[in-house]
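User: Could you go from structure to sequence for me? I need the amino acid at each position, not a summary. Structure tokens:
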């Protein structure tokens, strides 16, 4: 986790999954360039049982309830 003034960046790792999130696209692109050997699978849609959906108002996280 990195917090620099208004910029926040988090690097989440779970086994072989890596999620890079933040509110500064330039910083995310810089980190992605440094980590060029890691395959970029595009926008996150599922992670650890959570569904991640984006729209013009923000990001929505949900989890399917299973019995």
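Assistant: Here is the amino acid at each position, in order:
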């Amino acid at each position: 986790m990195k917090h620099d003034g208004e910029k926040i960046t988090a690097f989440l790792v779970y086994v072989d999954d890596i999620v890079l999130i933040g509110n500064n696209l330039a910083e995310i692109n810089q980190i992605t360039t440094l980590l060029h050997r890691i395959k970029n699978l595009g926008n996150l849609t599922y992670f650890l049982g959570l569904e991640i959906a984006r729209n013009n108002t923000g990001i929505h996280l949900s989890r399917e309830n299973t019995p």
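One structural detail worth keeping in mind: The mean pLDDT is 82.
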